[in-house]
């Protein structure tokens, strides 16, 4: 039995009252949160397998908006069912075939157009978690409009050397105890980036942390993990602030 790759313990999550609102952008729904003052910088947040309505991801959107960015989480699953913690793990591979994190280019373009034309955004960054971390890695190789990216524990896909030629500054965040991503894979990523990447990049591994650690809401954190979760979030925001 292969270990469950994306799913961390979603357990009983506390309720979260969101600060933003939902919008329709062409064929996509999205959750948007704006700062209380006018800004021309935005961040796209790419959800994990649990989709754009998952409370943890909305918490992250609100947190980023609190740092002075228009923050938006589009439904990259385009109205199809997200993975649920009650689903059977044996069906995951089939589910993934219809939810490919490398096939997000069209949705990204729709959201970029909206942010530029409707929200007045001049600089746009992107952050993504797990499934979304893979999508960010892909988009940072393909879309020059994204001025910086943060990929949080996206499984590392090694289909070719083209995986390393990033277009703009990208930060990769991993947990040391993530059973889906081995330290060997992380070392290889670092080696290949040194070889092929022409822009700023950073890789950081957080001690003792498991898959999904950085998106927990404060009341769901364990005391031992809290400092690492807060550090990862601060590092994520600092990277965005440096480049976006």
Automatic annotation (TrEMBL):
InterPro entries: AB_hydrolase_fold, CMBL, Dienelactn_hydro. Pfam families: DLH. GO terms for cellular component: cytosol. Residues 29-242 form the Dienelactone hydrolase domain. GO terms for molecular function: hydrolase activity. It is found in: Cytoplasm, Cytosol. Belongs to the dienelactone hydrolase family. PANTHER family: CARBOXYMETHYLENEBUTENOLIDASE HOMOLOG (PTHR46812:SF2). This is Carboxymethylenebutenolidase homolog.
């Amino acid at each position: 039995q292969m270990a469950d790759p994306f799913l961390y313990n979603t357990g009983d999550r506390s309720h979260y009252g969101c600060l933003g609102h939902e919008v329709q952008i062409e064929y996509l729904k999205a959750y948007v949160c704006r700062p209380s003052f006018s800004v021309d910088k935005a961040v796209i947040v790419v959800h994990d397998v649990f989709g754009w309505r998952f409370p943890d991801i909305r918490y992250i959107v609100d947190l980023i908006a609190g740092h002075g960015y228009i923050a938006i989480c589009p439904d990259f699953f385009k109205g199809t069912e997200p993975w649920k913690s009650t689903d059977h793990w044996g069906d995951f591979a089939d589910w993934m075939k219809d939810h490919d994190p490398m096939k997000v280019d069209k949705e990204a373009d729709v959201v970029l157009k909206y942010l530029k034309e409707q929200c007045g955004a001049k600089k746009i960054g992107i952050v993504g978690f797990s499934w979304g971390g893979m999508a960010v890695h892909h988009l940072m190789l393909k879309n020059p409009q994204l001025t910086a990216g943060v990929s949080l524990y996206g499984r590392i896909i090694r289909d070719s050397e083209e995986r390393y030629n990033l277009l703009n500054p990208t930060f990769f965040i991993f947990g040391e105890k993530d059973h889906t991503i081995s330290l060997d894979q992380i070392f290889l990523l670092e080696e290949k980036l040194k070889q092929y990447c022409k822009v700023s990049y950073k890789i950081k591994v957080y001690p003792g942390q498991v898959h999904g650690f950085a998106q927990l809401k404060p009341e769901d954190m364990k005391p031992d993990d809290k400092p690492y979760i807060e550090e990862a979030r601060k590092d994520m925001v600092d990277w965005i602030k440096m480049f976006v």
